[in-house]
Amino acid sequence: MTKRTARAVASPNIALIKYWGNRDHNLRWPSNGSISLTLGGLETRTTVTFDKTLPTDRLTVDGLPPPNSALLRVSEHLDRIRRIAGIHTPAHVESQNNFPAGVGVASSASAFAALTLAGTAAADLSLNPKELSRLARLGSGSACRSIFGGYVEWHAGETVADSYAEPLAPPEHWDLIDLIAVISREHKRVGSTQGHTLADTSPLQSVRVADAPRRLNICRDALLHRDFPTLASIVELDSNLMHAVMFTSTPTLIYWSPATIEVMHAVTTWRAEGLDVCYTIDAGPNVHCLCRKQHAHQVEERLGYLPGVINLLRAHPGGPASVI
Ligand code: PMV
Question: Which among 2, 13, 19, 139 could bridge 34 via Cys, Cβ 3.0 to 4.6 Å?
């Protein structure tokens, strides 16, 4: 057969306890474990076609050819899949997002989770979820969490082979809502792959990493007991710790805009007024406002009045990545 095609869908995820820095950059073996929520309603759909008539790999994202660096990263991931399958066939990859890429909504997580599923299915491989998570991790660290739905934990691992994600609780365990306050649509200047390599230049990184098991325990327990106040304080602390490492890296990494801080202030004020909402920020200026479903409407309305917020995306606990 000259062509073999498969299609997969995956959602991005928001880290509640963040991954920042690696023990091994090439293998994306993280310095610390992390916990996330898979974001239903946002998705990447990817088709992989292995085609013997193609001279080289081809990639389109949202209908357009992306920069060469993106094609190279996708080709490297296809090489991992080809190596396992024992094939050499070039592939055509078409990827479509229903949310803006490169603005801190972790498009690489859903992109590499969908690519891993579609690529392995098109290559006729049948890997179990743990193997898929480990493979997705090599494309983009946070992608290993997007293989699963709901609340997910990525174990840093004693060895690199032990570094994969597992589900903590299914999506229906707790109907939290993530309201993403979009501050900018500009593509970020320093991607997370490069950012991770700077983490160890900060004198705060070792302290952040040493304290990670404690934060993971608090976050896991708060999720399992649906304890919002405890979750809110550990999620904000963890986000602030990661950004403190970024601020104190050499060179300095500042992803925030003035409007980012405006939303952070507003969220903590609203929580003091009785709304169950907290903030967390990835490697971009946008603010993820995590709230209880019964307060989501009020938070959404209030975010809409903040001048720096140019758009709002809404996500709910989503399902696992799947072949479609
Ligand atoms: O998986 P990467 O390389 O895109 O890094 C993700 C980094 C953060 O989004 C900032 C934190 C996380 O755990 O998702």
Answer: 19
Q: How far is the CA of 304 from the centre of ligand 1 (A)?
A: 27
Q: Model confidence at 104, in pLDDT bands (50, 70, 90)?
A: low
The reply to whether ligand 1 has any atom less than 6 angstroms from the CB of 188 is: no
pTM: 0.97
Whether 188 shows a pLDDT value over 60: the answer reads: yes
Q: Which atom of ligand 1 is nearest to the CA of 154?
A: 13
- How far is the centre of ligand 1, averaged over its atoms, from the C-alpha of 140 (Å)? 8
Q: 108 CB less than 6 Å from ligand 1?
A: yes
CB of 271 closer than 6 A to ligand 1?
Answer: no
pLDDT in tens, 16-28: 999 999 999 999 9
Class of the domain covering 3-172: alpha beta
On the question of pLDDT at 187 being above 90, the answer is no
Per-residue HEC secondary structure of the chain comes to: CCEEEEEEEECCEEEEECCCCEEECCCCEECCCEEEEEEECCCEEEEEEEECCCCCCEEEECCECCCHHHHHHHHHHHHHHHHHHCCCCCEEEEEEECCCCCCCCCHHHHHHHHHHHHHHHHCCCCCCHHHHHHHHHHHCCCHHHHCCCCEEEECCCCCHHHCCEEEEECHHHCCCEEEEEECCCCCCCCCHHHHHHHHHHCCCHHHHHHCHHHHHHHHHHHHHCCCHHHHHHHHHHHHHHHHHHHHCCCCCCCCCCHHHHHHHHHHHHHHHCCCCEEEECCCCCCEEEEECHHHHHHHHHHHHHCCCCCEEEEEEECCCCEEC
283 lines ligand 1 (CB under 6 A): yes
Distance 137 CA to ligand 1 centre (A): 11
Residue range 173-317 in CATH 3.40.50.150: no
Mutate to test the pocket of ligand 1, among 11, 16, 20 (most ligand atoms within 8 A of CB): 20
Percent of the chain predicted with pLDDT > 90: 94
In the chain, where does the domain assigned CATH 3.30.70.890 lie? 173-317
